[in-house]
Every structure is written in C-alpha cells, then in structure tokens.
Amino acid sequence: MPPRACQIPRDELIACLLRTDCVLKEGKTPAECLKTPRELPIQCQHLIARLSDCKKGMLDMRRRFKGNHLSEEAKARARARGLNMFIS
C-alpha cells in the first residue's frame, strides 16, 4: 500500500514537535504546541509550512496533474539557506 499523500511531511513535523521544549519541558501535547507556532524552533515552523503547502497542493488541480513538487527556484533558495533536509 503506497504512503498517504503528505505523510512524510506530517511524520517529520510530529518528530520535530516531539523534540521541542514545549513538549519535553512544558509537558504539552504536540497539538497544543501547534497553537503557538511562533514559539517553536524555526525547523518546525518550516515543516508546518511544508505540510501546509503539501495539503494545498492536493487541492490545486494544476499541481495534481504536474505533481506536488517545489520549483527549481524554490529549491535553489532552500539550498542557499541551508535547508537541504526540506528538499526531496
């Protein structure tokens, strides 16, 4: 059975949230931590944006035919910022 759409970004976000101070030190659930995203580490914020973009891509008919991929320009910007882990 193939993985569900957006499953990889979702799993990465969950793993990131589980490593935050919000969960580890404050004892909140990941869902509670998502209510204040500005307090999360920048990596988790990027993963939130990635998951959101993936979900939007599922509804965008142009992306459904072409594929839910980053443009070359977006990939270059991500590499320049050192965000290689977000490029697949």
TrEMBL record:
- Kindly state one GO CC term assigned in the UniProt record: mitochondrion
Q: Which InterPro entries match?
A: Cyt_c_oxidase_assmbl_Pet191
Domain of life, source organism: Eukaryota
Q: Name one process (GO BP) from the record.
A: mitochondrial respiratory chain complex IV assembly
Which keywords are on file for this protein? Disulfide bond
The similarity annotation says: Belongs to the PET191 family.
PANTHER family with a match to the protein in the record? CYTOCHROME C OXIDASE ASSEMBLY FACTOR 5 (PTHR28627)
Name-wise, this protein is Cytochrome c oxidase assembly factor 5
Upper lineage is: Eukaryota, Fungi, Dikarya, Basidiomycota, Agaricomycotina
